[in-house]
Amino acid sequence: xxxxxxxxxxxxxxxxPQDVPTIMRHVVYALLPIxxxxxxxxxxxxLALVIVTTLxxxxxxxxxxxxxxxxxxxxxxxxxxSGILLALTLPPGFPLWMAAVAGIAGIAIGKAVFGGIGYNVxxxxxxGRAFVQAAFPVAITTWTPAFFMGRFSxxxxxxxxxxxxxxxxxxxxxxxxxxxxxxxATPLSLHKFQHISTAPFDLYxxxxxxxxxxxxxLLILVCGMYLVIRKxxxxxxxxxxxxxVVATSGVLYLINPDxxxxxxxxxxxxxxxxxxxxMASDMVGSPLTPxxxxxxxxxxxxxxxxxxxxxxxxEGIMYAILLGNAMTPLIDTWTQPRLFGAQPKSAxxxxxxx
Length: 354
Known about the structure:
Blueprint (H helix, E strand, L loop, with lengths): L19 H23 L1 H24 L10 H11 L7 H15 L13 H12 L35 H6 L10 H8 L5 H6 L11 H13 L6 H20 L7 H6 L3 H7 L11 H21 L6 H19 L9 H9 L1
């Protein structure tokens, strides 16, 4: 008789190893179509923007490796992702020297001071974006028309601004390239300040002004689904963010549809898709527990709508994610499941009192 043996192994039971560099590399793969569409939409200025921010992030990372006498950590791809995401959150014609400042600040303030990858509380790309939002408020809100003539043969004039100089006015240049109907405002700004709606199809496909990589909501959603299918992203985080946005904006829209935007507009406009799919889902800055993920996502969705509708800025996803990152340690503490057999603290205190 043949003997059958049962082989038992201890955990982890993993068929395909997924280390940090592998996951990060696939995130870069998922971002490449978004970068390609941004270059197609806005031209060589965006390509230069991506190169500058990525090199600034990599250079800053390597500098802090050298200062700390540590081996190079560039091969984990995390700084590459930060550089790409940072470029996608900036206006297409953002001065390149300011973009370099954003990359340096993002890695130095958002990552290196916390001890490197795995220790940072905030998303480095958003830290860099927030830094230049405060430092260069005019340049960060100057938008470039999509699909302008000559975008593959010439830079947006503001891109090549000399270091430490302010960018020139682009009104004459916009008129020269003959972009019909360009208002110099994003759909969020048009709705917030002028109560002008944008066609949903334009929001889905990216036929609008905005930051370099935030305009095509459907493309971002498809690229994010690539990571979900490969199980390299927690799909519940963006899903709960979308629920929070729809619920909050839906209530406001029911109260006053003439004043507040409808949920569909809120979902597909601005940087919500890019932030929800590629920034809020950062494994380091997001909660670990299922209940914590729900609270985290709903909080970001609620804050995004709150800032968009009642704040001085037209966009709110950046600050909503940073606030969510700040709340993550508390959310993890509140939602940490109790160990099997352990008594809750209230019961322990009662036992001591008895």
